[in-house]
């Protein structure tokens, strides 16, 4: 995709996702397929998505309702109110996005999806410059983030109104407000990035600043800053290792990583929101499982997971509304705003729920994508980083395929030569034979391109599904480690 200058990603070159007026979607549906049935296939993909999301939502609501039966009456009412407000947030997000697309385009928050037949190309299939195509509204994650913040504000009386003044949980309220404030800061920074096109030297430290309110409340409430030691090592290290300042540094790094990792793992319709929905749903499952299996005498531990649920349910509601409109063929681009908003929400919920190490495992594909991308992200490694690392487009079939960067192996520095040797020897990327000038084309180093290299070209929604299934698989690994492997390392696993 191509975005306006205010919404380009300097590291990955990935344009943000997009919902346009109905005419935009109709134009894409009418011209993206290689035959007359392609538009129908795309609509069937949307219908399948709606059915899957509907079934999973019903299952999730049922699980939350079942686990609420063991909660005190006032918490049952709070959870019911949270679910009701989340449903309202879904409706409002959908309606607002559908009605404000033209407004965003008029404000020059717009983009063009490069991997569509509606984008003009010459006879050889090369994009015409400047790029011409159907304009799609950009930065629609702003709507989702705004609705989420409003929902969480309205929810405050439902969560805390039942308490008397002498027994009011001030610590819980402070943590809740700090989490919402942190997420609000992150969403605002994302919108500033969409509009002002901030440089990476500016945007990288921003999540540090946004996380400070929540970290200060975490410190003031006296929450734990250490880790339990596996049984096999307790004779050497003791039962518990206090990390102190290093634990807060870990939380800060997690906040920065989760925010930007979603941003650079993008370039396919539905992927930014889709991966966020999978991660959020995985965290919700963890909360529900922990509430179900943790004895009621562990009141504080159960309340921590409940606080996490209060944040996750509305987040998933607004994200699902955005996903339906961002799915292939995308009618909206989500923008940096959503990436900041989603990433900081994950950082906030794992701090509130005290499962930061588990959240790291949930984000395993994002970590793999970051490590795999490092040779292009860091100049000293020598692999050139083109403006766009998103997949290329096969005009004849209407599929996406590997995109490439050009490398001159003879001119690489020592680190670059090592990286190139690893890529070629272990087949970690697709390398085309060198041309007469010794230039080798190497597939761009993103997890998206690696999946295309391994599994071959495909339609864009099929590629997105493969990547989301990989995210689900990694979540399953996380649960196996969290509840399986951990039982061999610790005497008691909560």
Tell me about this structure:
The protein is mostly helical and 494 residues long. Helix content is 62%, strand content 6%. It contains 17 helices and 10 strands. The longest helix has 34 residues, at 73-106. The protein is globular, with a radius of gyration of 23 Å.
Fraction of residues in H or I helices? 55-70%
Strand content: 5-15%
Spans of at least 5 consecutive residues with low confidence: 3-23, 25-36
Helix-strand topology string: EHHHEEHHHHEHEHHHEHHHEEEHEHH
> Which structural class do you get from the secondary structure elements?
mainly alpha
Describe how the helices and strands are arranged:
Elements: E1 2-3, H1 22-31, H2 38-67, H3 73-106, E2 110-112, E3 135-137, H4 141-160, H5 170-196, H6 200-203, H7 206-220, E4 226-228, H8 234-237, E5 240-242, H9 245-264, H10 271-293, H11 299-326, E6 332-333, H12 335-353, H13 356-362, H14 364-377, E7 392-394, E8 399-401, E9 404-407, H15 414-425, E10 440-443, H16 447-455, H17 460-489
Helix pairs in contact: 1-2, 2-10, 3-4, 3-11, 4-5, 4-11, 4-12, 5-7, 5-12, 7-9, 7-12, 9-12, 9-14, 10-11, 10-12, 10-17, 11-12, 12-13
């Amino acid at each position: 995709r191509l975005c306006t200058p205010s919404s380009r990603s300097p590291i990955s070159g990935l344009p943000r996702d997009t919902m346009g007026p109905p005419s935009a979607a109709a134009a894409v549906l009418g011209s993206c397929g290689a035959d007359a049935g392609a538009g129908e296939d795309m609509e069937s993909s949307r219908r399948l998505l709606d059915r899957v999301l509907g079934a999973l939502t019903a299952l999730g609501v049922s699980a939350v309702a079942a686990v609420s039966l063991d909660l005190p009456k006032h918490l049952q009412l709070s959870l019911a109110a949270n679910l009701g407000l989340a449903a309202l947030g879904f409706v409002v997000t959908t309606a607002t996005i559908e009605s404000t697309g033209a407004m965003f385009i008029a404000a020059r928050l717009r983009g063009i999806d490069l991997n569509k037949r509606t984008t003009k190309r010459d006879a050889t299939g090369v994009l015409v410059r400047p790029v011409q195509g159907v304009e799609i509204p950009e930065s629609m994650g702003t709507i989702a983030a705004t609705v989420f913040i409003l929902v969480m504000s309205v929810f405050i009386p439902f969560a805390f109104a039942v308490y008397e003044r002498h027994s009011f949980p001030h610590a819980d309220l402070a943590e809740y407000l700090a989490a919402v404030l942190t997420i609000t800061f992150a969403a605002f920074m994302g919108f500033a990035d969409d509009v002002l096109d901030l440089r990476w030297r500016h945007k990288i430290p921003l999540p540090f600043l946004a996380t400070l309110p929540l970290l200060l409340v975490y410190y003031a409430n006296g929450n734990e800053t250490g880790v339990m030691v596996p049984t096999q090592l307790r004779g050497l290290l003791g039962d518990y290792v206090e990390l102190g300042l290093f634990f807060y540094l870990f939380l800060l790094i997690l906040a920065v990583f989760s925010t930007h990792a979603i941003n650079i793992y993008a370039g396919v319709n539905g992927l930014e929101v889709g991966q966020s929905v999978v991660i959020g749903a995985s965290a919700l499952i963890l909360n529900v499982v922990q509430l179900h299996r943790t004895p009621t005498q562990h009141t504080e531990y159960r309340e921590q997971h409940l606080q996490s649920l209060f944040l996750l349910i509305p987040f998933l509601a607004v994200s699902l509304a955005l996903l339906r409109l961002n799915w292939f063929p995308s009618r909206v681009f989500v923008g940096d705003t959503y990436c900041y908003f989603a990433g900081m929400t994950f950082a906030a919920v794992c701090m509130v729920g005290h499962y930061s190490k588990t959240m790291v495992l949930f984000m395993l594909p994002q970590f793999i994508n970051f490590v795999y991308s490092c040779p292009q992200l860091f100049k000293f490694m020598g692999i050139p980083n083109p403006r766009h690392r998103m997949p290329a487009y096969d005009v004849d079939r209407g599929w996406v395929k590997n995109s490439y960067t050009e490398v001159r192996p003879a001119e690489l520095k020592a680190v670059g030569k090592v990286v190139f040797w690893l890529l070629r020897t272990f087949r970690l990327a697709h390398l085309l034979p060198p041309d007469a000038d010794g230039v080798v084309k190497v597939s761009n180093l993103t997890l998206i391109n690696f999946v295309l290299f391994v599994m071959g070209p495909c339609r864009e929604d099929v590629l997105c599904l493969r990547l989301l299934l990989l995210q689900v698989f990694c979540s399953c690994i996380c649960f196996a480690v969290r509840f399986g492997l951990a039982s061999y390392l610790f005497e008691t696993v909560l």
